[in-house]
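Hi everyone,

Forwarding the result from last night's run.
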Amino acid sequence: MAAAVTSGQLDPLNVAAADTAVIRDILNWETEKETVHELFLARAVADGPIMELPGGELRIAAGFEVTQDRVETRFGTGNIGSLSAKPYAENSRDNTAAFIEANLPVTDSLDLSLSVRHDNYSDFGTTTNGQIGFNFTPTDWLRLYGHWGESFNAPTTLDSLAFATGRSAIQTAGQLQSADVYGEWNGQGTNVVITEGTAPGVEPQTAQSWAIGLDLQPTQGLMFKLNYYEIDFSDIIGGLGVPTEQIRRDFPDKFIWHPSVDEWAQFLTEVQNPEAFNGVIDPADPNATLAYIYDRRVTNFGEAQMTGIDFGVSYYHETAFGTMSYGITGNKQLDFDLTEGGISSDQLLFAPDLRMQGTIRWSRDNMNAKLTVNYTDSFDTNNADNQSSVDEYVVTNLYVGYDFQDGGVADGLSLRFYVDNVFDEDPSEFRSYDVNAVKYSGFTFGRMYKVGLSYSFF
């Protein structure tokens, strides 16, 4: 359609005047992707007591795992059905892993947990990661616990395939002047091209974390929980969001203004759908219609440091009409610093740092119900976008379940009924500040009804 408009075959203000063959040609066009992903996993685990120690039984669990991951995908923009003529891009990965965990009762009140996992990837080599934890129970009403560990997460085989696509959009001169934070637009070309997908060379994500906490049960049925944690996340796999003014200012290397003939030719070799730009961008003179290329492909883009506190209190008791339980849990984020492409930002400046959930549960025989209230705290926006703060947000959900246990044909049948956002609450208004974040995340549904049905034969 863009090519037809450019050539004068289609007038957007008088579509009916276009030739039928032009309209038919425009409609015979699609963007299509097909992916086949196969995973084979075999695991053997043995566990049990090894020996008796003064504090109790030493227990060990050990295992071996084999994983084979295969993916093939293809993408195309062209006439309907043309994707079938395109070959698949393929990738595979094999991984063998061995792991062992020991539960060591040091004394009657102290036990340690030690574990280690060794992975051998066909594409990323070997990695060994350990965990250590402890439980200390000096009395029957107090438990202290903690852990330290490392983690390793390889990108998917689809990510390692470095499969990228491109798309174009037309912007007005005013939009481009606003985007041109470094004075690079020469006034020629109003097309912008966005590269999406995964960049070559994505490496695994890694993290180190530790936490310490306590459980306090001063009386039967009443429990208090408190947990402090720290997480150091490295080589986060991700990409930039929509190209806001702040993104353009912070990451100029992600934009190529007025690409040369060679730069445009290089771009076409890096995307799977170069035909999408036929008739839109002239490869002999890309500047005639192209303002810039924006690269938002996924890479090892960031690092994050997070600290926070998890807390909770719960109580349950028996009544004449069934078992009742009540609980409040929550998370208070103390720090959340995110570094993307060398640019650090405090993620709590324009986001809530407190979230809580309250629950009331009831059960009797084969019936049970739960009322859940989710609370998101208000937060200041430092007068960004003429808004001083964002209000708190409260959503109430209801669940009711019934299990048939009459011994008849319905025995084993379970019914579930849910109402999410019972009062159909609208989310608080947030005039999103222009920071390096995806603005459309966090959409909230209105009231939603769900019904579940399951049957157990055994």
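The longest strand covers residues 30-53.

Cheers,
N.
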